[in-house]
Amino acid sequence: MTIVLFSQALADPLPEQTEIRYQGWAGQVTFVELADDLGYLAPLKLKWVGNTISGPQDIQTVVTGDVDIGGAFYGAIIKLIAAKAPIKAVVGYYGSDAGTYHGYYVREDSPIRSARDLIGKKVAVNTLGAHLEFVLREYLARNGLSAAEAKQVTLVAVPPVTGEQALRQGSVDVTTLSGILRDKALERGGIRQLFADTDLFGNFTGGAYVLRDKFIKDNPNTSRKLVEGVSRAIAWAQTTQAEEVRARFERIIADRKRNEDASPIKYWKSTGVATKGGVISDGEIQIWIDWLVKDGLLKPNQLKAADTYTNEFNFYRTGKQADAK
């Protein structure tokens, strides 16, 4: 019995830090919050410090030490690491598939039918320098627009919850919608899809949660517990019936009492994460390194994909837990 207890202690050492600071997203449940609700983080305790609508802002807040974990598009992570930011991607947390993707929408009566029609137009995105900007620029490039022509497409930062309204009121010519916000807008009618990120890249994991290098070094046990818990929560959502996931999300939002609208949760379909538990691969990062090099934002061979992430703490890193929840 003593040997068993000793083995268990070695397998699950005490965390060095128990409070985990993070930012939320209004009307949504992050996988950090889901992991906590499922009991996967104990004895860690979450401390919500506010909401964000921007992945780049979220991970910049990790860099400055104002939160312990944050997530963003891989392109934004790569740019920060290339600028010597001391962070590592630790678990993929969002992406695009048949049920969960980012679409670019115009009004039904809009004359915009092609990439070239976007010249001189305004496109709403949640934040600059992230997933939606990169996808749009790739769409323009693949459809033959020169760099000078692409610069004539104006990006406007608009909170996701008001993107539909901005389009219908004519403040922008194109808006980006995904998941629950997209489906609600389509139910109301009067808009149509110009293209989607999956048209360009297929099914893919688009971004990851990051931790500071110093946080990992000073808190290896906490880091493992946190990332393992988040990866298990992602896998739970990947393998659980959507209606059960939605019910839990609705209850989490009600319980946290942040005076937010939970009705969009009924449109949740999938995680969009391409790998079990968000295990990261070189390939899903290299595509964005190559893009940044092509766009002149990185030098060739400036950064290797393997230098930007670690799967060390992911519960599914070896594949041995393939059937675990």
CATH class of the largest domain: Alpha Beta
In what order do the strands lie side by side in the largest sheet?
7-6-8-5-9
| Uncertain residue ranges | 1-10
Q: In whole angstroms, how far apart are the ends? A: 27 Å
For the secondary structure, the number of strands is 10
> Main sheet, how many strands, which sense, barrel?
5 strands, mixed
As for the number of domains, it is: 2
Element pattern in H and E: HEHEHEHEEEHHEHEHEHEHHHH
Name of the CATH superfamily of the largest domain = Periplasmic binding protein-like II
Which topology of the largest domain does CATH recognise? D-Maltodextrin-Binding Protein, domain 2
Task: Estimate the helix proportion, in percent.
Answer: 25-40%
Shape: globular
CATH architecture tag of the largest domain: 3-Layer(aba) Sandwich
Average pLDDT level: 90
Strand content: 15-25%
Summary of the model, kept short:
By secondary structure, the chain is of the alpha/beta class. 40% of the residues lie in helices and 19% in strands.
Report on this model:
The protein folds into two domains: 2-97 and 205-307, Periplasmic binding protein-like II (D-Maltodextrin-Binding Protein, domain 2); 102-201, Periplasmic binding protein-like II (D-Maltodextrin-Binding Protein, domain 2), CATH 3.40.190. With 325 residues, it is an alpha/beta fold. The protein is globular, with a radius of gyration of 20 Å. Helix content is 40%, strand content 19%. Helix 2 links the parallel strand 1 (19-24) and strand 2. The longest helix is centred in the last third of the chain and has 20 residues, at 220-239. The chain has 13 helices and ten strands. Helix 2 (31-37) packs across helix 11. The strands form three sheets. It has a five-stranded mixed beta sheet. Strands 3-10-4 form a three-stranded antiparallel beta sheet, with helices on both faces. The protein has a two-stranded parallel sheet with strand order 1-2. Residues 1-10 have low confidence and may be disordered.
